Amino acid sequence: MADQETLAPEKVAEIRKEFDYFDTDNNGEIGLTEFIELLTIISPKTKASHVEEGFGLIDKNNDGSIDFEEFLEWWQQSWWEY
Length: 82
Ligand SMILES: [Ca+2]
Ligand SMILES: [Ca+2]
What we know:
57% of the residues lie in helices and 7% in strands. By secondary structure, it is mainly alpha-helical.
């Protein structure tokens, strides 16, 4: 969470936009189904087993969905170069 402070507000807003885009039912979290859709777009060749594994890694509190904080953390790790 401390990592968030290193991000520029406009960067956070940008990530927020991505998050909202993938949160297709707008409930403020990305569920497994939404996550699969996301991954299918980002990397179509990803195997279903990998997707679920990835989901488990991002869903740090294991409540079955990715909230914005978890998404942000993941985004910073995987998209650092961008
Ligand atoms: Ca959702
Ligand atoms: Ca979660």
